Amino acid sequence: MQTISLDVYGTLVCMVGVLLLGRYIISKVKFLRDYDIPEPVVGGVLVAFGIMVAHHFYNFKLVLDSSLKEPLMLTFFITIGLSADFASLKKGGKMLGIFLVAVAMFVVLQNMVGIGIARLIGVDPLMGLLGGSISLVGGHGTSAAWSEVLSKAPFNFSQSLEVSIVCATFGLVSGGIIGGPVAHYLIKKHRLEPSVQERKERTEGPMMAFETPKQERLITANSFVQSLALVSIALLLGTFIAKHTKALTLGSMTLPTLPTFVWCLFVGVLLRNLLSYSKIHNVFDREVSVIGNVSLSLFLAFALMSINLMELVNLALPMAAILTCQVVLMILYSIFVTFRMCGKNYDAAVLSAGHCGFGLGATPTAMVNMQTVTNHYGASHMAFIVVPLVGAFFVDIINALAIQGSLSMILQLFH
């Protein structure tokens, strides 16, 4: 087999190339523009398909350097934190609670559907749970963690890692594909528009971070260094806290471990509000937005172009059935439950696109879904306040409780 291993520089060129490829194809394909398919998804899936074909027919393998993947992801979440002052978080109060309830209901339903379909087609219900919130809401990190648990007694599901990684990969792709079309359908069907204030801001003033990444931003070398310093401090503190809070115990109870990106986001929020309260430094929101948008796009480009599509091609029929049902469930739930619970307005449509992103994939997918929608139709401040909070903070707690409850049910009923 011919193997080409790229170093960090070669990998960076590929990541940028994926974004440029996605942008070019979207500019030429009206369907992709109309349905707001994100650039990293278009370019990343095409490159992944090309790599799969080269591997299958020409015995070719491409190995990418993953050293930039985690820093890019962490930087993105830090910039979310640096853009979230407490005044903005307070604005999301009521909608935050409503969206959180909608998400919690969906996580439980997702596991019930996965387990139910697994039992219906006669396979281990653990396969259904792995095709539920463990891999879809949880993503690759949660999948890897829970797979280790399920591979041991009393579950003894030896293929848990392979199944969960395939499901998480499938969810990452499908979550990025359906979010834009769902929002497009809701906006067109209900003839929705942004509020008067947000339409005015779109034409006359700056937007909230991440809502309009194509808007012109004036950045100087001095201000960029200041913003980069804040990101660097949050990276250092966030990773340090995450490293030293693993396996903490309170008496006989082991405290739950939060992902590193949650700690980084939390440090970003603290830095922003401490600096604002003390009036030491005003965070340059537009500049932070640029850093976050670039990090997000590059992270997704790497994640999507490095997926192994052969794993999806080789999915057993039971897994294909479970995952297909989960995608249909996500589409129907976002249209008939999330959208209606959140007010049946433009903000609710953008929230539905975000829910599709992290309901099947990950919070970065949710953010890029909403970016593409707001680039097309206009801003939604509420969605960009609520979705990062729920997707980065609360959904992990909800998911952990839902998984524990589902496992207890499986042990009692089927094992």
From TrEMBL:
GO terms for cellular component: plasma membrane. GO terms for biological process: L-glutamate transmembrane transport. It comes from the Bacteria. Keywords: Amino-acid transport, Cell membrane, Ion transport, Membrane, Sodium, Sodium transport, Symport, Transmembrane, Transmembrane helix, Transport. InterPro entries: GltS. The chain crosses the membrane at residues 6-26, 38-58, 70-89, 96-121, 163-187, 224-242, 254-275, 287-309, 315-336, 348-370, 382-403. Its main location: membrane. It is a multi-pass membrane protein. It is found in: Cell membrane. One of its GO terms (molecular function) is glutamate:sodium symporter activity. PANTHER family: SLR0625 PROTEIN (PTHR36178), SODIUM_GLUTAMATE SYMPORTER (PTHR36178:SF1). Catalyzes the sodium-dependent transport of glutamate. Belongs to the glutamate:Na(+) symporter (ESS) (TC 2.A.27) family. This is Sodium/glutamate symporter. It comes from Helicobacter mehlei. The lineage of its organism: Bacteria, Pseudomonadati, Campylobacterota, Epsilonproteobacteria, Campylobacterales.
